[in-house]
Specification:
With 131 residues, the protein is α/β, with parallel strands linked by helices. The protein has helices at 34-51, 71-80, 97-109, 120-129; strands spanning 5-9, 12-19, 22-31, 55-63, 87-92, 114-117.
């Protein structure tokens, strides 16, 4: 993939854009929920697999958020979607950093290399160069 490409998901859109050594996915135009998040991560995992990508920058701009009680289910879905093999930087453009940090802990406990950020530049730096 050499240019930006936008795809529709169930209740959101994703714009994919290749970066140097990673894939950038901007998720927008929707309202988050457990079903939306599971669908989003499945689509992202499938795209990474089809492109042979092992580093992903996700920039999420969705209204609402997933309930904390649902995060364990979401972490399981992410593991099933192949995220144990994909280093992922997740940028939250809305206000749910605390909830996403809890989700990060659950994912890391499952062996996924994922971090949550509120700044895309910092996320990109971690994704490409590490801690």
């Amino acid at each position: 993939m050499t240019a930006a490409r936008t795809v529709d998901g169930p209740g959101f859109r994703i714009q994919y854009l290749p970066g140097p050594g990673y894939l950038r996915a901007h998720v927008f135009d929707g309202v988050d929920s457990i079903d939306v998040s599971i669908a989003m991560w499945r689509m992202l995992g499938a795209e990474c697999a089809s492109q042979g990508v092992d580093r992903l920058l996700v920039v999420e701009d969705l209204a609402a958020t997933v309930e904390t009680a649902e995060l364990e289910r979401l972490a399981q879905a992410m593991e099933e979607a192949g995220f144990a093999r994909i280093r992922t930087a997740f940028v939250e453009l809305r206000d749910d950093i605390a909830g996403n940090e809890f989700g990060e802990i659950l994912c890391r406990e499952r062996g996924m290399a994922i971090r949550v950020f509120s700044d895309e530049t910092e996320a990109r730096r971690w994704l490409v160069y590490g801690d």
